[in-house]
Design a protein that fits this description.
The structure is a single chain. The protein has 92 residues and is mainly beta. The chain has a single domain, classed as Medium-chain alcohol dehydrogenases, catalytic domain (Quinone Oxidoreductase, Chain A, domain 1, Alpha-Beta Complex), CATH 3.90.180. The protein is 13% helix and 37% strand.
Length: 92
Amino acid sequence: MKAAVINQYGAIDDVVTVTEVPTPTVGPRDVLVEARAAGVNPVDHLIIKGFMRTGDLTQPLVIGNELAGVVAGTGAEVTGFAVGDEVFARVD
């Protein structure tokens, strides 16, 4: 899947890239969403610039936490969503 990521903190034009990343594993309480639209908000800007560090960047950090899309998979304990549901979210 494609994702906007950073490998270091800095200026947006210098550090943000769009690249292929592995599809996340769906845990028992998780919902996997095929994003149809995504947004980057001011908090993401602060993270990219390093003002809100999220920890060690030894792995690429996927940025953006607002999305709309379709449920592509659900964990065994999920009861409120089903594959094919249209959803929107702001995730951690």
